[in-house]
DNA sequence: CCATGCGTTCCACTGAACGGAACACGATGG
DNA sequence: CCATCGTGTTCCGTTCAGTGGAACGCATGG
């Protein structure tokens, strides 16, 4: 499979935030997707719950749900009558992961870092103002902390997000546009904070986060560059007491790994 | 987290096949989901491709795509203009996997089987006439064979499907209703074949497949029972030459594993 | 240099998606 | 034990939102 010229930074970021649908949006399709979004928050919901949440009639919610059920995007528990996300979403999601070229080329490198350090290793890609972790190799600590968490985190609360923003103006700007909602004990709360930590990451070539997404954890991230542009990040993550003493050793290891991935991207 | 009385067999199977929408289907939502389905077949498609495939106007396809793009379900390559599945689907899919209770209780057992045998281990659940593999622990062989394949396989071409149908009348019937499309050198082509292999699996307590889904591979599966009903399967998989000599040893190992999972389900 | 393909935009028509009301069921509790 | 409240589900008339077709700007290539 041949890699096209610049295949690593070519996806158009979605706008999504706030209801400025500007005309070219299908209403029923939009609310159908909103239904799915409801289940990103709660695992199980009833027709009435969703109707309330979306501000539509119960009949409308029911109609949306049944169409989603017939396509396998949602399944209904036929004891409780409640609805939840369906297996078909899992299938499609797996397709997305399997087709991610960058993840493929990075995987062997990630495995090496994982074995060399024993830490949880993450591979994140920028998506608007967030980072989505498309691969995770976790040890027991990571499993304990992350297993029930989603794959998307705001860039200003992760070392990966900061280091990507440091070498990717679009990602930087997207986070600015979305503001800096505080998370646990997040250090970044203002545009000035953001500028500071990002430029520090730019000079260092890596970023560290202490308890910014999860209390008591530390992560260290380096960017994966493609033509001077950050298209991904490699990071390790874990309880602060196991990561902090290692940072000095981890940074060069991660940097080498990142460079290997960058090379494989063909830049 | 408490497990409700019969939480393991309570999802309503979707109907999906053939256009008998019987009235309660949202047309635009339906075609939007059809758009996503297009990308289950091809990784990248243009507006015109999709319009042709769905038999709608180009403008309609474009409108559907843009709404899906704004929600992150699809992304557009802004060099080629082509569309592909978006990261948000990956996120939702991961949620589905993470919330699958059965997978959670099975995981440690699967890991044990994986280490004890060195083979690729699959954990499949019935979904209508198919089996969806919600967890895979692969060795190098499995990675080579499966890495680019989806997670859903028709039940009559897999040991997992056969052994689930053997102890799950609903899954059995769903496959009958969907017919027996041939795959590689599939042995099951008629209702009679199906009845034969399934009843054999029922008597043996396990099922074996030779080159039924993938040429030159063998898989061995046992059911995970919950109150005498198959709610999942544990299977090992690999090149025939590495699996076949081991079958005698694998069956009791898998059976023991399956029983441990069943116990954990609370039946 | 025109012909053909693409992705995108606009607009008038109409059928499809909406909300409200009524339904059947089960769980509560007076 | 009946009344009340909640659920998920069904039906139907109104109207608005989704449709297809035509036109656009831009590439490609014969």
Provide structural commentary.
2 copies of one chain form a homodimer. Chain A has 267 residues and is of the alpha+beta class. Chain A folds into 2 domains: 1-95, Arc Repressor Mutant, subunit A (Orthogonal Bundle); 100-265, GAF domain (Beta-Lactamase). The first copy, chain A, has helices at 27-41, 47-54, 58-70, 87-99, 101-117, 140-146, 159-166, 169-178, 191-204, 240-243, 247-265; strands spanning 74-76, 83-85, 120-127, 130-137, 152-154, 207-210, 217-226, 229-239. In chain A, the strands form 2 sheets. A 6-stranded antiparallel sheet of chain A has the order 5-4-3-8-7-6, sandwiched between helices. Chain A has a two-stranded antiparallel ribbon with strand order 1-2. In chain A, strand 7 and strand 8 (229-239) form a beta hairpin. In chain A, helix 5 (101-117) runs antiparallel to helix 11, helix 7 (159-166) crosses helix 8 (169-178) and helix 7 (159-166) crosses helix 9. Chain A is elongated and about 60 Å long. Chains A and B meet through helix 1, helix 3 and helix 4 of A and helix 1, helix 3 and helix 4 of B. The structure holds a DNA duplex (30 and 30 nucleotides).
């Amino acid at each position: 499979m041949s890699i096209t010229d610049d295949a690593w930074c070519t996806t158009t970021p979605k706008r999504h935030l706030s209801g400025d649908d500007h005309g070219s949006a299908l209403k029923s399709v939009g609310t159908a997707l909103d239904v799915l979004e409801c289940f990103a928050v709660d695992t199980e919901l009833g027709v009435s719950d969703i109707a309330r949440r979306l501000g539509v009639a119960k009949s409308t919610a029911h109609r949306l749900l049944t169409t989603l059920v017939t396509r396998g995007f949602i399944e209904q528990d036929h004891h409780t009558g409640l609805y939840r996300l369906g297996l078909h979403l899992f299938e499609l999601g797996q397709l997305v992961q399997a087709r991610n070229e960058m993840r493929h080329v990075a995987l062997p490198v990630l495995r090496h870092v994982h074995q060399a350090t024993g830490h949880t290793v993450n591979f994140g890609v920028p998506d608007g103002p967030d980072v989505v972790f498309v691969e995770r190799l976790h040890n027991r600590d990571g499993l304990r902390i992350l297993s029930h968490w989603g794959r998307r985190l705001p860039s200003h609360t992760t070392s990966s997000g900061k280091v990507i923003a440091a070498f990717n103006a679009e990602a930087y700007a997207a986070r600015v546009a979305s503001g800096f909602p505080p998370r646990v004990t997040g250090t970044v709360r203002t545009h000035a904070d953001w500028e500071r930590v990002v430029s520090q990451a730019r000079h260092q070539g890596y970023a560290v986060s202490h308890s910014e997404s999860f209390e008591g954890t530390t992560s260290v991230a380096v960017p994966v560059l493609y033509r001077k542009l950050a298209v991904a990040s490699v990071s390790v993550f874990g309880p602060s007491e196991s990561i902090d003493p290692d940072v000095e050793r981890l940074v060069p290891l991660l940097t080498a790994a990142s460079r290997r991935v960058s090379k494989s991207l063909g830049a």
